[in-house]
Amino acid sequence: MNTTTNPPSRTVWLIAGILAAASLAAGAGMLARNGLPAPAAQTVPAKEAALPAARLAAAPQQAAPASACHDCGVVESVQAVTRKGEGSGVGAAAGGVLGAVVGNQVGRGNGRKAMTVLGAIGGGVAGHEIEKRSKSTTVHVVKVRMDDGSLRSVEQAAAARVGERVLVEGGKLRALPASQG
Q: CA dihedral defined by 111, 117, 120, 126, rounded to 10 degrees?
């Protein structure tokens, strides 16, 4: 009985190398496209941040008006952000089948089998990404400078106007008349 095993063929090593390179390229592309998350917003009131600690302690305390609105502020910036949708697996399955069919047209023998597998994997990944992008939505990240100087960030479907006076209610914005707030 022959107990020697054949070392993996060059085709297997080639496929493994291509898959590794594709994985690294996909990861680098996602980092380049999405970047790193922004740091959390600072909630130190602007008036306090501008004063040195000694002057702040020596400054006379002013009483806030009785009718002050604690949830009112002015829209400082609006940024439209596209959020990818969720993939259901239909795009991956369809892409995998299509990729396998295309991959099967290339090469002969073991090369054809390898290209069929690579085509199925690549088509599945591409199909999944296409499905997520087709289900993407756009939200508006609205930064509001509150009357106390803090900065709040609210996500909503509709855009707000920069400079508009708003009331922040439970994570939603409501426009205020110019005379109110």
A: -90
- Residue 7 pLDDT: 62
Helix, strand, coil % (nearest 5) of the chain?
A: 40, 20, 40
Average pLDDT over residues 63-91: 77
Residues 6+ apart with CB under 8 A from 141: 78, 79, 81, 153, 154, 155
Please report the domains of the chain, with CATH numbers, ordered by start residue: 70-84+136-181 (2.40.50), 86-135 (no CATH)
Q: What is the per-residue DSSP string for 104-125?
A: TTSSSTHHHHHHHHHHHHHHHH
Q: Given the structure tokens 């040195």, which residue do they identify?
A: 52
